[in-house]
Amino acid sequence: MASDVLVYLGAAIITAWGIAHIAPTRGVVAGFGAISQDNGRIVLMEWAAEGMTLAFIGLLVLIITALHGSEDPVSLSVYRISAAMLLVMAVWTLLTGARTSILPIKICPAVKTAVAALLLVASVL
To answer: 0.70 cut: is pTM over it?
Structure first.
């Protein structure tokens, strides 16, 4: 089914994006230069937390679809709620991080929005 393809594609993209977000965490913290140990820990925590959240959303969508299919009411709710969260995160990133010079952060809102669109379209097919 077309909705299955959209869901699995969206889940794969956002899970990979989350993992890719986590991988450079130490380098990101180091990029802040001389900041206090507490501030470094906060940046580390928040950077990793966003990556884990993105991976969780992708894995949740993947697992719910595998267990219940893409037409189950629970699956549809998960897709819509996940899309809403991705859109909230996209707006937040657009208002904050996307104004930096770091390219992955600049494209992050587009990735989150694209995956949200895939999930929303899949939920109405």
So the answer is: yes
